[in-house]
Amino acid sequence: MRWAKRTSKAHGRRRATFTVTGNAYRIAITPDGTRAYVTNTAGQNISVIDTRPTDNTVILTINAGGSAGDQPNTIAITPDGTRAYVTWGGDPQRQRRRH
20 to 30 A Cα–Cα from 16, which one of 28, 49, 85, 93? Predict the structure, then answer.
């Protein structure tokens, strides 16, 4: 298990710590602030976290497995919060996935 940290942009202070599987690599927060998406390189998955103040729990783990060495890297959320785009390490033929 690894931890991902959410920090306040204004003050750079830690606001929450989330427990995820694999090695947390990158995090993206939806525009409304209710979900965090964390790429986990060793676990070959993406954790979806409910970021409301009382929850901060993983609500979904998206299996992103593929060939050996294939792993999710950077993640970005569209401005309307309806899609997440992930870059992949390892396999150059990997296509984007929609959640």
Answer: 85
